[in-house]
Amino acid sequence: MQPNMPSESHASKLHAAHYADRMKQIHTTVEQNELVGENTFRLRIAAKPIAAMVVPGQFVMIRLAGTNAPLIGRALAVYDVVRDANGEPTWIDLVYLRKGVMTRALSASALGTAITVWGPLGNGFNNESCDRLIMAVGGIGQTPMLTLGREAVGTETYGDPARANRWSENVELIYGARRKSLLAGVDDFRSAGFDVTLCTDDGSEGVKELVPNVLAARLAELPAGERVRVATCGPEIMMEKVAEVCKAADQSESEPSVTCDVSMETPMACGIGICFSCVAKIRQDGPEQWDYKRTCVEGPIFNAKDICW
Amino acid sequence: MPNTTSLSTTLGRLTLKNPIMVASGTFGYAREMQEVVDVPRLGAVLPKTITAEPRVGNAPWRTVETSAGLLNAIGLDNDGVDAFLENHLPYLRSLGTSIVVSVAGRTTDEFVSLAERVGNEEGVSAIELNLSCPNVSGGIDFGTNANSCREVVQSTRDRCKVPVLAKLTPNVTRIAEIAQGAADGGADAVCLINTVLGMAIDWRRKKTMLGNGMGGLSGPAIKPIALRCVHQVASAVDIAIIGIGGIATIDDVMEFFVAGASAVQIGTANYYDPTVSTRLIDELPAALQEIEATSVAEVVRSLG
């Protein structure tokens, strides 16, 4: 059998520098598991150490305890951190789309079902200050954005020690789905104080338009010189288009300066950097050079200009 | 309960403080796991297989879950021996437990020079010859032919000062013959088994799920195959055996001992239960005591 070897190849010493060095494995139970949209569920589990440490854009691996069906954990972004009566981060909420074997099993899990979860994992979004954060998401890609937006506007802090918050003057969400029923948690984003623009493929809610096109129109309205950060999560083809839109706007003299952070989703087996499954092609050392990087520990957030789509 | 149970185990010239090892390729380079498990407690650590040159590995997807198993075609993605010695070995040797370095070559010479070079490094307890990775061309040939197996093991043993373990593939007709080849070559132990060659198909797209087409199946799905291989080799060949294949619970560990293994490697379970390895060390004394054994050796090859 001849492996499908890419032609470029070179040594990378960077693999040595990334670890899931703060993750905790926790045995817990389902405390809430409710339908929040078509085939979309919000799961709540007690996971104090994870709730205390997680920063926006990080994720956890989750699996049903005591079964080999399914066997492997699944990576889910942390949607919300819920505090107890004393204000201590105590629960994490995960929003997932019922799609495959694991999410079908999870959606059928009664309260009290034993769950194993490990995290927080991944690098998370950066929190450098900007004038405007635009979260451009599609499908189930809204899930890492509630915490990110809250941190940006300054209504929440995340991490231990807490990261700086209130790092963006303005926070907007552009959220697209195939149809209205698949939009989940819109009220959460609205009540968090973000400007929300909805779009659907069939026009059943918001504008009948694709997320990258809505983003392009929005960027064209913004003044030159404004520092905009776009954070995107969703189907890979959508993220690629979003990255193109950001690049074009950034190169235009009449539009704002735009950076784009992409939350990559690749199939993972461990989430902690030991299996080398979840690789994405990432540029390094000039435009022709790339390496497979593990999205679990070297991502999942990558600068769009580093991704070889 | 008095703690009179001995967990140490002997594999040819290699003695481990306990029989719970982690399988190569399922534990990174150990540093990834330092905040997850108490790594120095492990009987031995096997870092991800290294090759002479860096390998970028296979195109995604690299893993696909199947029923009670995981199909993988990572393709020995690694930074090569130079980067290993510079970046990983200093940390590994600081752990204070046995370090068994897995190497893979395309030729006997490549195996020998890798094993010689790595085996001469301070802090390396043994070399595991990956004679069986299904995801790269070349390596598997050594594991499917008894003469080739004997030759590569013997050549390595002649030039490598530390114990030599041979990790074999189950994808053969008579695994005991291959194991006999390894024994004749002077291997200190055989590691049984590497992954079982398999594939997964997306029928709608009419494509294989793995970027590489075929891959190696691991996890609980292959445990019966691994137990059978261990039993067959234990029955026919005078060599120490390290059992690998779907081990996730203390029952699994004990079954492998009874079948003939003197130690085990935890593989895929590290992915879906990251703290499993040291938990099994915790659970081992009680399991031995349950059958009134005071050492691992008493249980090895005890199938009635």
From TrEMBL, chain A:
<dbReference type="InterPro" id="IPR050353">
    <property type="entry name" value="PyrK_electron_transfer"/>
</dbReference>
<dbReference type="InterPro" id="IPR039261">
    <property type="entry name" value="FNR_nucleotide-bd"/>
</dbReference>
<dbReference type="InterPro" id="IPR017927">
    <property type="entry name" value="FAD-bd_FR_type"/>
</dbReference>
<feature type="binding site">
    <location>
        <position position="278"/>
    </location>
    <ligand>
        <name>[2Fe-2S] cluster</name>
    </ligand>
</feature>
<comment type="similarity">
    <text>Belongs to the PyrK family.</text>
</comment>
<dbReference type="InterPro" id="IPR012165">
    <property type="entry name" value="Cyt_c3_hydrogenase_gsu"/>
</dbReference>
<keyword id="KW-0285">Flavoprotein</keyword>
<dbReference type="GO" id="GO:0016491">
    <property type="term" value="F:oxidoreductase activity"/>
</dbReference>
<dbReference type="InterPro" id="IPR037117">
    <property type="entry name" value="Dihydroorotate_DH_ele_sf"/>
</dbReference>
<feature type="domain" description="FAD-binding FR-type">
    <location>
        <begin position="23"/>
        <end position="127"/>
    </location>
</feature>
<keyword id="KW-0813">Transport</keyword>
<dbReference type="InterPro" id="IPR008333">
    <property type="entry name" value="Cbr1-like_FAD-bd_dom"/>
</dbReference>
<dbReference type="Pfam" id="PF00970">
    <property type="entry name" value="FAD_binding_6"/>
</dbReference>
<feature type="binding site">
    <location>
        <position position="296"/>
    </location>
    <ligand>
        <name>[2Fe-2S] cluster</name>
    </ligand>
</feature>
<dbReference type="InterPro" id="IPR017938">
    <property type="entry name" value="Riboflavin_synthase-like_b-brl"/>
</dbReference>
<keyword id="KW-0001">2Fe-2S</keyword>
<dbReference type="GO" id="GO:0051537">
    <property type="term" value="F:2 iron, 2 sulfur cluster binding"/>
</dbReference>
<dbReference type="InterPro" id="IPR019480">
    <property type="entry name" value="Dihydroorotate_DH_Fe-S-bd"/>
</dbReference>
<keyword id="KW-0479">Metal-binding</keyword>
<keyword id="KW-0274">FAD</keyword>
<protein>
    <submittedName>
        <fullName>Dihydroorotate dehydrogenase B (NAD(+)), electron transfer subunit</fullName>
    </submittedName>
</protein>
<dbReference type="GO" id="GO:0050660">
    <property type="term" value="F:flavin adenine dinucleotide binding"/>
</dbReference>
TrEMBL record, chain B:
<dbReference type="InterPro" id="IPR001295">
    <property type="entry name" value="Dihydroorotate_DH_CS"/>
</dbReference>
<comment type="similarity">
    <text>Belongs to the dihydroorotate dehydrogenase family. Type 1 subfamily.</text>
</comment>
<feature type="binding site">
    <location>
        <position position="130"/>
    </location>
    <ligand>
        <name>substrate</name>
    </ligand>
</feature>
<dbReference type="InterPro" id="IPR049622">
    <property type="entry name" value="Dihydroorotate_DH_I"/>
</dbReference>
<feature type="binding site">
    <location>
        <position position="193"/>
    </location>
    <ligand>
        <name>FMN</name>
    </ligand>
</feature>
<dbReference type="InterPro" id="IPR050074">
    <property type="entry name" value="DHO_dehydrogenase"/>
</dbReference>
<feature type="binding site">
    <location>
        <begin position="72"/>
        <end position="76"/>
    </location>
    <ligand>
        <name>substrate</name>
    </ligand>
</feature>
<keyword id="KW-0665">Pyrimidine biosynthesis</keyword>
<protein>
    <recommendedName>
        <fullName>Dihydroorotate dehydrogenase</fullName>
        <ecNumber>1.3.-.-</ecNumber>
    </recommendedName>
</protein>
<dbReference type="GO" id="GO:0005737">
    <property type="term" value="C:cytoplasm"/>
</dbReference>
<dbReference type="GO" id="GO:0044205">
    <property type="term" value="P:'de novo' UMP biosynthetic process"/>
</dbReference>
<keyword id="KW-0560">Oxidoreductase</keyword>
<feature type="binding site">
    <location>
        <position position="219"/>
    </location>
    <ligand>
        <name>FMN</name>
    </ligand>
</feature>
<keyword id="KW-0285">Flavoprotein</keyword>
<dbReference type="InterPro" id="IPR012135">
    <property type="entry name" value="Dihydroorotate_DH_1_2"/>
</dbReference>
<dbReference type="InterPro" id="IPR024920">
    <property type="entry name" value="Dihydroorotate_DH_1"/>
</dbReference>
<keyword id="KW-0963">Cytoplasm</keyword>
<feature type="binding site">
    <location>
        <position position="130"/>
    </location>
    <ligand>
        <name>FMN</name>
    </ligand>
</feature>
<comment type="function">
    <text>Catalyzes the conversion of dihydroorotate to orotate.</text>
</comment>
<feature type="domain" description="Dihydroorotate dehydrogenase catalytic">
    <location>
        <begin position="7"/>
        <end position="288"/>
    </location>
</feature>
<feature type="active site" description="Nucleophile">
    <location>
        <position position="133"/>
    </location>
</feature>
<feature type="binding site">
    <location>
        <position position="167"/>
    </location>
    <ligand>
        <name>FMN</name>
    </ligand>
</feature>
